[in-house]
Amino acid sequence: MSDRYADEDVIRRILLESGTWAFVGLRDNPGRTAYDMAQLLQSRGKTIVPVHPDAATVLGEPGVASLAELPSPVNVVGVYRRAEHAGQVTDEAIELFRSYGPRTDGEIRAIWYPLDVVDEAAAARAADAGLDVVMNRCPAIEWARLRLPR
Question: Which residues are in the CoA-binding domain (predicted)?
Answer without folding.
Answer: 15-97
